[in-house]
């Protein structure tokens, strides 16, 4: 059984219909020493991908795929890297994307899949003026 | 923010799953945002206020 109800699926499908650019969700999980959140993350990204043929899931092993881990600078799992037409958007989700994190994941997919960022023009100017590496970490919980 | 500028990386972290990190950054409530290990933002803020704090921009001058 899916994690999403048929009604949620229909709503989500509608939200995702704006996507025009292929989106890849690169999922890093580990088989040993892992919590069940890796399985939940896998199920969630697969359910999302099943709703829109422009979204694909690329599975990676956190322990074995060291080259990809280094490429995307992944230091913990489960992790989801969001690519827009194979280009890294530098947006990452760590842990099972449930609750608020799920909303964040869908929003990130829509940004990657449309190339549109819904921010105030002035805010965008400030962001685009950033000229040094900036690492933002947002901690949240599912509820 | 990350999508708008390639200097920026944005991680959304499930706090209860990564307790070591949550302890490191003293996450006692959510959302909590850490920028470059130095800036801490507690709670959710309106867009402009959040970006100003995250990028360490000076407060808006009254006009």
Structural class of chain B: alpha+beta
Largest sheet of chain A: 4 strands, mixed
What is the number of helical segments of chain B per DSSP (H or I, 4+ residues)? 2
Quaternary status: heterodimer
Q: Give the H and E element order of chain B.
A: EHEEH
User: How much of the residues of chain A is beta strand, in percent?
Assistant: 15-25%
Mean pLDDT of chain A: 94
- The helix/strand class of chain A is alpha+beta
Q: Tell me the total number of β-strands of chain B.
A: 3
Strand line-up of the largest beta sheet of chain A: 2-1-3-4
Largest sheet of chain B: 2 strands, antiparallel
Beta content of chain B: 15-25%
Amino- and carboxy-terminal Cα gap of chain A: 22 Å
Q: Summarize the largest interface: chains and residue counts.
A: A-B, 42 and 37 residues
The portion of residues assigned to helices of chain A is: 25-40%
- Structural Rg of chain A: 15 Å
Identify low-pLDDT runs of chain A. none
Shape of chain A: globular
- State the helix count of chain A: 5
Explain the overall architecture:
The complex is a heterodimer of chains A (143) and B (63). Chain A is of the alpha+beta class and 143 residues long. Chain A has helices at residues 6-16, 37-49, 66-71, 100-114, 121-128, and strands spanning 23-29, 55-61, 79-84, 87-94, 134-140. Chain A has a 4-stranded mixed β-sheet with strand order 2-1-3-4. The longest helix of chain A is centred in the last third of the chain and has 15 residues, at 100-114. The two termini of chain A are 22 Å apart. Chain B is built from 2 helices and 3 strands, in the order E-H-E-E-H. Chain B has helices spanning 19-24, 47-54; strands at residues 8-14, 32-35, 39-42. Chain B has a two-stranded antiparallel ribbon with strand order 2-3. Chain B is globular and about 40 Å long. The model of chain B has no long low-confidence stretch (mean pLDDT 93). Chain A binds chain B through residues 35, 37, 73, 76, 84, 89-97, 101, 104-105, 108, 111-112, 117, 119-120, 122-124, 126-128, 130-142, and chain B through 1-18, 21-22, 25, 27, 30-37, 47-48, 51-52, 54-55, 57.
């Amino acid at each position: 059984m899916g994690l999403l109800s048929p009604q949620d699926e229909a709503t989500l499908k509608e939200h995702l219909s704006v996507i025009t650019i292929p989106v890849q969700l690169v999922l890093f999980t580990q088989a040993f020493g892992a919590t069940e959140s890796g399985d939940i993350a896998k199920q969630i990204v697969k359910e999302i991908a099943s709703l829109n043929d422009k979204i694909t899931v690329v599975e990676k092993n956190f322990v074995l795929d060291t080259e990809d881990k280094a490429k995307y600078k992944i230091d913990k799992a489960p992790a989801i890297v969001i690519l827009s037409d194979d280009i890294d958007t530098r947006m990452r989700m760590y842990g099972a994307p449930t609750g608020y994190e799920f909303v964040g994941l869908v929003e990130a997919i829509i940004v990657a899949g449309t190339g549109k960022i819904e921010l105030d023009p002035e805010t965008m100017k400030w962001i685009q003026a950033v000229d040094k590496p900036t690492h933002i970490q947002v901690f949240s919980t599912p509820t | 923010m990350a999508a708008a500028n390639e200097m920026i990386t944005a991680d959304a972290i499930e706090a209860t799953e990564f307790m070591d990190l949550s302890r490191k950054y003293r996450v006692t409530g959510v959302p909590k945002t850490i920028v470059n290990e130095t800036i801490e933002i507690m709670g959710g803020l309106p867009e402009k206020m959040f970006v100003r704090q995250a990028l360490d921009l000076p407060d808006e001058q009254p006009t």
